[in-house]
User: Which sequence fits this backbone?
């Protein structure tokens, strides 16, 4: 049986109604053709799903569990924030100014460790989803691990013969899942 989701926020719709109970999106008869369907037997990942409208203006609003869950649900990915961490793309040539460099170039991601691969959800300098997401299938990852650094972990994985590095900070302001999930990093990596 196909499950229906709101085309705006991705919330599961038990019964078609006039409006989504989560975000208020209109679901009138002429709009029901846009309701997203997902077959439960075969997961569908739509990682190019538009970034959700920010909950409110300010810094770090998409670093919240409920925002990550809603966005993942809209993409057809298991709606949980128990397997995600915030990461900054590492550039060793700019190591001393990497945080400023990442903020300027939007090289931040929320990594979601899924059973069939790793989802990189793009984040901008205001900590909001950008809609620029990447999904790396499990079978194309040849190695994965991390090294402890002074104030962060240097996470790396190899895909297509190329090593990719990211900085993972154990604490982030306005992020309600980072500290807890960083403690589970070993179990995330073990599934690959």
Assistant:
């Amino acid at each position: 049986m196909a499950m229906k989701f709101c085309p705006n926020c991705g919330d599961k719709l038990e019964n078609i109604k006039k409006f989504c109970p989560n975000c208020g999106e209109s679901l009138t008869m002429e709009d029901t053709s846009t309701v997203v369907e997902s077959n439960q037997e075969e997961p569908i990942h739509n990682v190019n799903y538009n970034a959700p409208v920010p909950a409110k203006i300010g810094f770090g609003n998409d670093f919240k569990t409920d925002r990550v869950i809603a966005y993942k649900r809209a993409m057809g990915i298991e709606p949980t924030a128990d397997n995600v961490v915030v990461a900054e793309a590492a550039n060793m040539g700019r190591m001393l100014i990497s945080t400023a460099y990442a903020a300027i170039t939007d090289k931040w991601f929320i990594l979601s460790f899924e059973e069939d691969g790793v989802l990189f959800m793009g984040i901008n300098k205001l900590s909001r989803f950008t809609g620029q997401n990447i999904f790396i299938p499990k079978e194309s990852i040849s190695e994965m691990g991390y090294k402890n650094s002074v104030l962060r972990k240097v996470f790396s994985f190899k895909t297509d013969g190329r090593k990719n590095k990211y900085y993972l900070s154990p604490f982030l302001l306005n992020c309600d899942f980072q500290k807890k999930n960083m403690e589970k990093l070993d179990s995330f990596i073990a599934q690959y």
User: Anything to note?
Assistant: The beta strands are 2-5, 12-13, 36-39, 84-89, 108-114, 117-123, 129-137, 141-148, 153-159, 162-168.
